[in-house]
Amino acid sequence: MNSCVHPNSLLPGDPSLILTTNLDLGEKKAEIMKGISEVIAAATKKPESYVSVCVNDNASVIFGGTDAPCALGNMCSIGAISMESNGEVQKGVTELLEPFGLDAGRIYINFFDVPRANVGWKKATFAG
Fold it and tell me: Looking only at Cα atoms, what is the longest distance across the chain?
């Protein structure tokens, strides 16, 4: 096992990302969501089968007082939140959205390391 990988990052559970943007992703939306899923799996070292992504496009969003293209996201994970993985996700998501007019300075993603007891799945939590 890589000593830089937290042992909990190898367990089932999130990561999940909810991203809201005023961009219109049109017919490319599913492709973008799949790309984001791949970015998250690679960055967190979790199987893509654990990753969930929700993208709300065409939303009413302002950033810095303007409605120029922007995005806001929240990502949660059990044991796979770190400076390195967060940076990889931020970069990857931004690069996927740039062709739609997003400037790299107009996207925030907040990252949350969630305790196993606070993530539900299969009628229980990951803590039991």
Answer: 46
At 94, list the tokens: 């931004």
Supply 62's token pair. Answer: 């302002």
How far apart (Å, rounded) are the C-alpha atoms in residues 56 and 121? Answer: 23
- The answer to whether the CB of 84 falls within 8 A of the CB of 90 is no
pLDDT digits over 34-59, tens only? 999 999 999 999 999 999 999 999 99
User: Which residues are catalytic, by number?
Assistant: 15
DSSP string, the chain: --TTS-GGGGSS---EEEEEESS--GGGHHHHHHHHHHHHHHHHT--GGG-EEEEE-S----BTTB-SS-EEEEEEESS---HHHHHHHHHHHHHHHGGGT--GGGEEEEEEE--GGG-EETTEETT-
Count other C-beta atoms under 10 Å from residue 128's C-beta.
6
pTM greater than 0.85: yes
